[in-house]
Amino acid sequence: MGGICARFAEDHRPGLNFALLVVTYAAYLLVGAGIFSAVELPYEVQLRHQLEASRRDFLANNTCVSDDSLRQLLARALEANNYGVSVLGKSSRRNWDFISSLFFTSTVLTTTGYGHTVPLSDEGKAFCIIYSVVGIPLTLFFLSAVVQRIMVVVTRRPLAHFPRRWAVSKAKFAAAHAAALFVVVTLVVLIIPACIFFTVEQDWNFLESLYFCFISLTTIGLGDYVPGETQSTEDDRHRDFYKLVITLYLLMGLVCNLVLMETCVELPQMKRLRQRFYRDDLRELDSETANIIEREHTADASDHVIPSVSEHTDTVRDGGRPAVPYMLAPSLNGKLN
């Protein structure tokens, strides 16, 4: 019985690993929901009690205002606030001037979507649908093209050059390179901008500034913190320039994050890990051929590298002699003979 179970597990290992991954992810969601509920629910209950107490105090101190009138006013104010129109602050601020609209389009097309400003008219809502249907795929294509060009300089060339020059394993160098890139990206797009927002935004502490940067660059975009909305009136003359800089920062930061994620995805360790969750069609190949393919992709640290078939063919086509003659695997050579 034990042998049958062991054989079944071996034959269906990718499927079992994938099922375990699904269960693990579901458990992670449930644990996260439980923690958020335990942490945030007491604050929500406390805030509700405070608001109810404030409402009762206001009605007690202003007997000329009825409860129904106050509820209607609050409902109207909250509805307007959901559309980005607040009864607080200066009424001269506009959410739909050109720079603010540019900031809105960038958050829509990158799927960040803060939700602090939304189309008010039916025409605007209809145009937003059409604009996004075309713009989001275009943005993804644009970001993909930019990231791939940067990847050549930042990741692929160093991985092709330095492991051989320094005689180190490509897998180890790739891991160290990804770790160094993670530190640089974290510093450039999270820590330093958070310090700047902490200085500029008067109502934000450093944690809130860091929280905004992370939520924005991961395209979560909760919208509870939006820069440029809490500045004092004397800084309003710089608000357009501030919004424009933030728009450029969000686009550049998103590109940096995508480069980092693409670098991590291409790690040999990640490729081997992903192969645990699906059946590889290359298993049908000759074992010696599979070993050659594996050596070509993992690129060991030795200066003596077996050229691939394509490299050998290109060299001969150009009229030269290959530096290392291409040799068939012993098992394949025997089969051909």
Topology:
Elements: H1 2-11, H2 13-61, H3 67-82, H4 98-109, H5 122-166, H6 170-200, H7 206-217, H8 239-265, H9 268-274, H10 287-298, H11 309-317, H12 330-336
Could you describe the 3D structure shown?
By secondary structure, this protein is mainly α. The chain is built from twelve helices and no strands. It has helices spanning 2-11, 13-61, 67-82, 98-109, 122-166, 170-200, 206-217, 239-265, 268-274, 287-298, 309-317, 330-336. Helix 5 packs across helix 8 and helix 6 (170-200) packs across helix 7. The longest helix has 49 residues, at 13-61. The chain is extended. The two termini are 45 Å apart. Mean pLDDT is 81; it is low at 282-286, 299-314 and 320-337.
Radius of gyration of CA atoms, rounded to a whole number: 29 Å
Question: SSE order, as H and E?
Answer: HHHHHHHHHHHH
How far is it from the N-terminal to the C-terminal residue, by CA?
A: 45 Å
Question: How many β-strand stretches?
Answer: 0
Q: Tell me, rounded to a whole number, the average pLDDT.
A: 81
Helical proportion?
Answer: over 70%
Low-confidence stretches: 282-286, 299-314, 320-337
- Briefly note the structural class of the backbone: mainly alpha
* Main sheet record: none
How many helices? The count is: 12
Shape: extended
Strand content: under 5%
